[in-house]
C-alpha cells in the first residue's frame, strides 16, 4: 500500500540503477525517506531487507530500521494514541499529515514484528542486533511516548513492546543462553527489571500450564537463565538507574520502589518453582537460593514448602537444600520437626565423594556448633562420622578427623568416647547400631571411637598423624576447618614432594651382589655403586 500523499519513486520508465552493496543501498533509502515524505514507500524496501537470505543484508536492514524509526519517534512523525486499523485510518476524515503518521506507525509495528521473529533466527549476530534494536525502541518510546499521557492514566512506559520481547526471549524449543546473556545488561535498569519480572511472572505459568504437567526442559532452562540473571538491589537508595524517567510523581511509581520490586520478585520465583523441575535444574536453583533469592523476597517463609520437599528428596538435593533451610532457621526462626534426625540420615558414604562436600560439612559444622545440643546427639554424629571414616579417601579423612575432634572439644560430655581403651575393636561387639536412622536409638554413647585408633595405622602418614591426636589430651583450641574442607587429591600429591624427610632407614651391610652372592652373573653386566 502506497503512503498517503507520497509518490512511487520507482517509475517503470526510469532506467534501472546499478546493483549496490546492501548497506550502502539501505543507507541511501534512509536518507530519501527522512528527506521527503514523497519517498515514504521506500520503507517497504527497507523492511524487505529484514527477510533477506544473506546475514549481511539482514544486519544492514536492522541497523537502518533502528536509525529510521528512532528518528521518526523523535520528530513526532508516528501516530500517538490507540492505533486504528490501517484501512480504517486511511479512509478516516482527517488531514493528510495525520494519515501519513498512521501509515508510518503501521510500518513501525511491522518492523517490530519482524525484529521479534529475527530473535529466533539461526544466526546469533542477527538475534543480538534484533534484541538491541528492540530495546532501543523501548528507550525511544519512553522518551517520545506513543500513548497519550493523561493525569489519571498509568505511568508512561512501553509495556506492550517489552512484554512481546520477554515472551519471545523465553523460547520453548530452542536454547537462548547467549541471547539472555546479552539481555542481562538491560536488567541493570530498574524499570526494565521491574517490568521484565512482571511479564515473566505471567508468561511462565501460562506456558507451563499449557504443558499439562509435562516437563519443558528447554523452556524451563531459558526461564531459569533469565531469572538467575536478575540481581536485586539491597537498599531503596540503590534504585537510581532508570531507562525511562517519569516526568511526574516518579517517586511513587511502582518501578521506583524497592518494596514493589521485592513483591514482584517473590511472585516470579514462586510462579517458576511451583511447577515440576528436572533434577539438574533443582540443583541449580538450590545453589543460589540462600544468597540470591531468599534475602530479596518479601516473605521468605513462603519457600518453606519448596525447601522441605527438596530436603526430603535425599542425596545431593538434600545437601543443597540445607543452605536455604539454614537461612530460614537462622533469620526467620523456622522450626523444622526432626531436623537433626534427617540431617543424621544424610551421613552416608556418598556424602564424602560429592562435589558439594565442602558446603555440606560447613553447614553441618554450623548446625552442631550450639553448646545446648544433648550429648547423645553429638555422640551419634561423632560415631557415625567415625564409622564413615573407615572407607573414606585420604583427602576427606584429613578434614573428617579434625571435625570429629572439634565436636568432642565443644561437648566434653562426649569425651568417654575416646577414653575407653578396654573396648574391643570388633564390629560384632560394638553396641553402636549403624543402620538405625534415629540418633536417639543408635546407642552411640555406649560405644567408643575405636575407628580413629584404627586409622592410626593408615597408609597415608598425614592421616595416621591426625588420628593419633586422640592419644593425647585434646586442647580447648578448635582446629580451623576452612582450609581442609576443599582439600583435593591433587593438593595431596603436590604436597608430598615438598616434604623433607628427617631420616631414612639404611641397610647396615652394603650389598655385594644383586642376588646375594659376590661376583654373581648379574654384576657382570651392572655395577652396584
Please characterize this protein's 3D structure.
The chain is mainly alpha-helical and 529 residues long. It folds into 3 domains: 1-9 and 19-148, no CATH class; 155-276; 337-497. Helix content is 52%, strand content 0%. The chain has helices at residues 22-35, 42-48, 55-75, 86-90, 96-118, 124-143, 159-169, 177-183, 190-210, 217-228, 258-273, 279-293, 304-313, 315-332, 339-345, 357-367, 375-389, 394-410, 450-454, 461-467, 482-485, 489-495. Helix 1 packs antiparallel against helix 2 (42-48), helix 13 packs antiparallel against helix 14 (315-332) and helix 14 packs parallel to helix 16. The N and C termini lie far apart (101 Å).
Which helices and strands occur, and which strands form pairs?
Layout: H1 22-35, H2 42-48, H3 55-75, H4 86-90, H5 96-118, H6 124-143, H7 159-169, H8 177-183, H9 190-210, H10 217-228, H11 258-273, H12 279-293, H13 304-313, H14 315-332, H15 339-345, H16 357-367, H17 375-389, H18 394-410, H19 450-454, H20 461-467, H21 482-485, H22 489-495
Helix pairs in contact: 1-2, 1-3, 3-6, 5-6, 6-8, 7-9, 9-11, 10-12, 12-14, 13-14, 14-16, 17-18, 18-20
